[in-house]
Structures
1.
Amino acid sequence: MSDFLKLVGEQLRMIRIAKGLSQDEVAEKTGKLGFSKGRLSNIENGQSNITLTTLENLMKALEIAPDELFNFQKLSNVADIEEKSLMLNIHHSLLRDRDLNEVKYVVRVTKEFLDTMDAQVKKNSTK
């Protein structure tokens, strides 16, 4: 598939993960449209050509605006996507066999860290 589909798919995945949602939860939020976990996986991996209607429904399920979806400043090319995907897979494998409480702790600390970084960026951009 095209680089654009990979970018959109990765952006959808990043937003879903940032919101703490599983693919099943997003599928459920699409309601009667009945997106399956497999279809969402194909979209996130850039392996599915989607319509604008499908994209709109996914944005509604994720509760995001178009400008949030199409902000590709953090992902400039396919190599970035592939490297990021590799890093996420490594992170996943590190946590897979850990106790649930340990995983929750890592998620909480990571979220706090990212919130702090985002606040700093916002603070610096208003100067």
2.
Amino acid sequence: MVRSQGSRLFTRALCYGATKTLAVDQGLNRAGGALGGGRHSVSGVTATVFGATGFLGRYVVNELGKIGSQVIIPYRCTEQDTAHLRVMGDLGQIVLDPYDANDPSAVNKYVQDSNVVINLLGRDRETWKHSFEKVNVDMAANIAKAASEAGVERLYHFSCVGASPDAIGKKFRTKHEGEVAVREHFPDATIMRMAPVVGVEDRLLNSIAFMTRRMPYVPLYDGGETKMQPVYVLDVVKAFVETLKHEGTKGQTFEFAGPETYTMKELVTLVEKTIREPSGSLNIPSSLGKLMDSPRAALQASIPFPVPTHTMLTSDYIDELESDLVVDGSSLGFEDLGIEPQRIDQGVPIEHVRFWRSGGYDFGSTFE
């Protein structure tokens, strides 16, 4: 529950800059200047960001702060976990407050003074308290309903490539259900589907590097033939800012994917080469992988805390790999926004993986 003292601070922080008017159709701020005048400028955007403490959230908050926006961040973690967000905007422009995600009235409180609401909530695997249905569907619906009732002008719902009612993976099925629920409550919502995102804090390349360095093997389910188009995190955030500038993006669905398609096996090879480690991949039939995870899954369903395991070893993850995570070009994307996405196998997008080298960032092992 929200503390009373925090509520008073939250209310005072919103006294400045709260507005329902958002003039960004031509990339203009409230004063008529170009949107993106810097952290000391006033963009006229008051944005509530749910899920701001996650991987993508920190980049979204930083971009909003860079264009002079006030950002309201409800959080469920410890205060220390939000410290990096406090410095991303001008003094008083980043407003953080603890909240109960299961309380619809708490959601209403955080959107009533905003003209932009962004939902970044999501999970890689289920826990006893937070199932995929609860996070991807129920919470998404609560946010969309609250935004609609508050008269919010823009709602952004972040989903993922692969979301489908026919998907084998439960995560992807509930992501689709969440999109439907959002559209029901807020028809003009902008839905942004992302391919697997890479960056310093990602859970794709870092997970492969972790398994390569710390585990006996890297599992390649059914030969690692699943195809995907990993996308660089800064390209996704750049696209988000572009959609914010134009009214025509309301009610649209975007799909953002990288320019290159890789199989899971090729991604593992890329990481092994980058961190200079010998191949440690092991081909495992998906049926065997699910069988190996079944004791953990059964235990997880009966206890209120996460059972320690790596996401790449769970049945949900194996189910996700049953379908290729590539875009078919039927939705809007980077090209429609004038953005050329970066390759993830060279330059800055892959740079963070080098820190996994056993001899350090500059040296690494002697393996070639």
3.
Amino acid sequence: MGQVTLQDVAEHAGVSMKTVSNVVRGYRHVSDAMRTRVQQSIDALGYRPNVSGRSLATGRTNMLAFAFPDLRRPYFAELAHVFSRVCADRGYQLLLEETAGAPGGELSAVRGREAGVVDGVVIHPQVLTPTEIDSARGDTAVVFLGEDVRPPGSDLVAIDNVLAASEAVAHLAALGRRRIGFLGHEVGEQSRTSAFRLEGYRDGLTAAGLPFDASLCVAREVGDARGAEHAFGQALDAGLSIDGLLCRDDLAAVGALRAMRLRGLEAPRDIAVVGWDAIGLAASLVPSLTSVAPDTVALAEAALDRLQERIAGRPGEGRAVTVGHRILVGESAPYPDGSVD
């Protein structure tokens, strides 16, 4: 057989060419049964869409971009994996763009459509303002992740960082912890993520009837596990006395646990520790890490729902979508009865 065509797939599946096209493009209105039927024919015949030809005919590439600060951070690496799977399920290819949290990298990402490379971009911005993003993106369909920095009329998908941090503090307070610290925000100007998580930390203290003490909040100069270990170790050596700790992210928690171990302290005996992101490594630590777990699948699904609507040109005001989270309880801060998830 020569090159397999769209018509070949349609005849094999007993459906119209438009239905096959809709499946290939990942349109959501195709039923699961029909999608499976067409996909079986695609697999059986070995059909491969002609992306360049389709791009010329439709002005679309069927490729999306996911732009994020740093692939070395486990959370973003794992989130990129989730996005890749969800995109594949919808018939899209995914281009990963590491912005390094720098203006140039973020500008390049939101300008992707101008180069004819991608149909739309999901971005987790770190430094660009809404005005800068709006002026740079042209007609690129963009959906934002994280804190609300979207230009007017744009879409945002995020978890509620303030609520999640407050719930994490409540979990520690339920264990009887009364001197609860925070670890991992930036030295000097704070990122938007850190600011919201610190706000939730303070809300949680207030709800638990505990005072806020700025001396219990430990910043780190370098945003990785070593930076957290160094900062927390110095604080402990200087006399920091806490019995509970909420960390900005799991890397900060990893650093905290190491700093504690080197000083003869254990979690949860001496300090109950809660991380953030529920990275794969968290469950393999000793002790296993209690962590705020964002629903990354729901986040990716919601972001791509909005992006596909924008690509299709559907009108509507931009909106913020909040996805769920949970406290995944491990040994570092178990339930009051000592059990874990």
4.
Amino acid sequence: TALLSVSDKTGIELLLKTLKKHGVRIISTGGTAQKIRELGYEVTDVSEVTGVPEYPSGLVKTLHPRIHFALLSDRTKSEHVKRMEEEGITPIDLVVCNLYPFERTVHKTGCTKEEAISQIDIGGVAMIRAAAKNHRFVAVVTDPLDYGKVCD
């Protein structure tokens, strides 16, 4: 299972082709899920996994125990495996996430404080860190330029 949540959707089709070829289930958030569907690929909305609809303005999408346990669980620990089975949680093996363009936004002429604040990513950072923490089981890709490496 792969979790995709990207601000920069450049090159995503290459990645999707490879994931489909290998039969990888894709979970995704709002705009990314929409783009995946537009490109003709199957995707499960993250809200279907969490059982909670995305909050207004996309403020909370992936900050949920079902997502983070799927990222952080140690698949060699029986209590982790048992809990995942009991709750119907599928482990996540790959996180593809790039953050909101905060730096680009704040350098725009006339950028307001509200615009800048809206580009501070919380959920994306948490997913990336969770995947990195559990790197034995979860790969993480943050740069569209690295999609080719993943696909090789």
